[in-house]
Amino acid sequence: MLRMTRAELHRLVWSKPMTEIAKLHGVRDQHVAQACDAHDIARPRAGHWQRVEHGKAVEAAALDNKKHSPEAIIIIEPAVGRPGGLQKGEDDDAAGQCAA
What we know:
The protein has a two-stranded antiparallel ribbon. Helix content is 36%, strand content 8%. α2 (18-25) crosses α3 (29-38). The longest helix has 10 residues, at 29-38. It is mostly helical. The chain has one domain (2-82). It has five helices and two strands; from the N terminus they run βααααβα. Residues 80-100 are annotated as: Disordered.
């Protein structure tokens, strides 16, 4: 589980790629991205980490505190089960059925 303030999450997403954050905290990178979007935390754009890797200058976006406090707590639950909502051992046929 990932539990931190908006300000801490903002610093974290600008310090390392989402995939690394996800691995370190046992969550999915998509969930980190969704939490950022839901709490108005700007994320690095595509190519940001490649520019960093090649020593190019990059700027982190400032944390916008108009709608949410920087001290608001954000909780991202760990990734469990398989994508699509089915847990191991559940009937896979139910996922493939369509309404007629």
